[in-house]
């Protein structure tokens, strides 16, 4: 389907979402451009699913703006919806059907459905087309949900913990292919995961959500280069160019570090994503 789009595939500005007194999303800004694979990290309850559901227009925002494929999320039309893929955390319907029947029904909604791609992913995941959906294991259901969201080559793919139930080899295959798909077809991907090593392997960008705020939203290489765990002497004043992400006594996690030396700095260590996560969630 030819729908040329100027600008980003996803633009989120000043997004807030409340549930009663709880501010689940507190001023989110993020942008996805073609070819980007953004991994979304955050502890349980940080707001990852809420962010995804609001982006998709399944939840109404209280403040701010979400443009998906150039269109406001609360008025997404059918044509736009068929260019967005979504794997929710919980699936899913099609209970009374076989895998092949479920796929046949589902594909009817998508003019760009690619049967060959569907078949190759069925093989890749080792899914039996004749199996009944209600007898699939959790991982098999997740595989089916992934195929259902991907086989029409969506421009924007939103995946809520898509690999949580997949075994390590299925995970590895899927994550690698996900990255290739995004690069080849100029799509953008936003996926949440608690598995930081997966994210490190395939993501081009990382976003870290804490208490409804994005503490980090940048290129993965940028995090590697400029996020440090500083060990400071008591009373040390930090240069104003450093953004404090978290602090535990004399251990301070900062962004924007460029190898500067200053009085009181005892050590500056780079962190992998798992270490960063642990430091920010003591
Ligand atoms: N429908 C709802 N009504 C009330 N509160 C909600 C609702 N949905 C989410 N919340 C609350 O909003 C916060 C964010 O929840 P959300 O499901 O987005 O977190 P999450 O980061 O996806 O967590 P997890 O990693 O456990 O899936 C939580 O405090 C949750 O209790």
UniProtKB/TrEMBL annotation:
ABC transporter domain location: 10-236
One Pfam family matching this protein: ABC_tran
Cited Gene3D superfamilies: P-loop containing nucleotide triphosphate hydrolases (3.40.50.300)
InterPro entries: AAA+_ATPase, ABC_transporter-like_ATP-bd, ABC_Transporter_VariousFunc, P-loop_NTPase
Keywords: ATP-binding, Nucleotide-binding, Transport
Gene Ontology MF: a single term: ATP binding
Keyword Cell division among UniProt keywords: no
Name this protein carries in UniProt: ABC transporter ATP-binding protein
